[in-house]
Design brief:
The chain is built from 11 helices and 9 strands. The termini are far apart. By secondary structure, the chain is an alpha+beta fold. The longest helix has about 35 residues. A 4-stranded mixed sheet has the order 3-1-7-5, with no helix packed on it. A 3-stranded antiparallel sheet has the order 2-4-6, with no helix packed on it. Helix content is about 45%, strand content about 10%. The radius of gyration is 47 Å and the shape is elongated.
Length: about 350
């Protein structure tokens, strides 16, 4: 009898039980999702779908089990919820006295039934605790977040757990210190002159800027380009930018005594000494500076080395052409050829080129 009376209240209370079971099932499912996705992230990210399958199975199984064992409403539970609407435990007492045909029991049932007529089933609220909702939300964030990480890792967008762990356990890269200096009497530097970079990384650009009356000669490590970017550095170093003074002629054409920093190969070209008919004027060291910035002698040596290497590798080029190219570089060599070409002797092409 009580069951029939409470039937219209059963569905509403049952929905509450189903909702609670589902939320708790989701908590367990998301926990399994997080753990399994984490394991697959380390082991094999391509198995992320297995984590999703486990989540669905655990959530459904846990929700069904919890509803059947804990949240399926009984007659006494329904009576207790109805009494909470102001019936002062009339429904609970009637359910407890079900089957009792005594006068008192019958009077109690009659009173309970009259009170029940005033109660609408819609007054029964579905109650879900806030902590349960918060717990479900937090577990969802962790579970779905870890699944997203594993999925992205399987697509190669982010690193896998193995790669992350290897990077975490790896020794930090060595710090390399680079110092760039300049000879104060000849110029200065543009850029970061003291740099600390990780081993194997590239340094920031640095440029040597000569003062007026000076030109860039070379770096102390042999590089001849005033602009440098050291790539893939593996050890610390200190390099110094060297500069060369530009010699200015006096009124009588003699060089100034101030140009004392010229290299030996920056002297006069013997073929242009004026000793022969086809010889030009005196070769000044200022003419050995490219664009007023870079010393010609070093650029010549680099170009010559490169050309000789190409000639040695090119077996298809005629020997006459190779000889012609080699002779051309001899004619433009800093400091002249041998001193004999400047006397205007027969076959002296170097003197003729200089006069032109």
């Amino acid at each position: 009898m009580s069951a029939k009376l409470f039937q219209k209240y059963y569905s509403r209370i049952a929905r509450e039980g189903i909702l609670k079971s589902l939320l708790l099932g989701l908590v367990l499912g998301f926990a399994v999702l997080f753990l399994s996705a984490t394991v697959f992230w380390f082991v094999n990210p391509n198995l992320f779908w297995v984590a999703i399958l486990l989540f669905a199975l655990v959530t459904a199984g846990a929700a069904y089990f919890l509803y059947e064992k804990k949240f399926r409403p009984t007659t006494k539970q329904i009576a207790r919820r109805v009494d909470e609407l102001g019936l002062e435990e009339r429904m609970l007492t009637m359910a407890q006295l079900e089957g009792d045909e005594s006068y008192i029991a019958m009077r109690q049932r009659e009173d309970a039934l009259e009170a029940l007529e005033t109660v609408n089933e819609n007054l029964i609220k579905i109650i879900v605790s806030i902590p349960l909702i918060i717990c479900t939300s937090i577990s969802a964030v962790f579970g779905l977040g870890m699944t997203t990480v594993t999925t992205l890792s399987s697509a190669g967008i982010i690193m896998s757990g193995k790669e992350w762990l290897a990077g975490l356990l790896a020794e930090p890269p060595q710090q390399i210190e680079l110092i760039y200096e300049a000879e104060a009497k000849g110029g200065s530097l543009e850029g970061e002159v003291r740099q600390v970079v990780e081993e194997g990384q590239n340094a920031s650009p640095v440029r040597a800027v000569p003062k007026d009356g000076w030109a860039f000669l070379e770096w102390s490590d042999g590089k001849t380009d005033p602009y440098r970017v050291d790539e893939g550095v593996t050890e610390s170093f200190t390099v110094i930018a060297k500069f060369i003074a530009l010699e200015e002629a006096d009124n009588d054409g003699s060089p100034n005594d101030e140009a004392t920093d010229l290299p030996q190969d920056a002297g006069e070209q013997e073929g242009n000494s004026g000793q022969g008919d086809g010889a030009g004027g005196e070769y000044k060291p200022v003419n050995q500076v490219i664009d007023g910035n870079t010393y010609y002698g070093h650029e010549y040596n680099v170009a010559l080395e490169e050309v000789l290497g190409l000639l040695a590798q090119d077996n298809a080029m005629p020997e006459e052409l190779k000889l012609l190219i080699s002779n051309y570089f001899d004619t433009i060599k800093v400091g002249g050829n041998d001193g004999e070409n400047g006397e205007g002797s027969e076959g002296s092409e170097g003197g003729e080129d200089a006069s032109k």
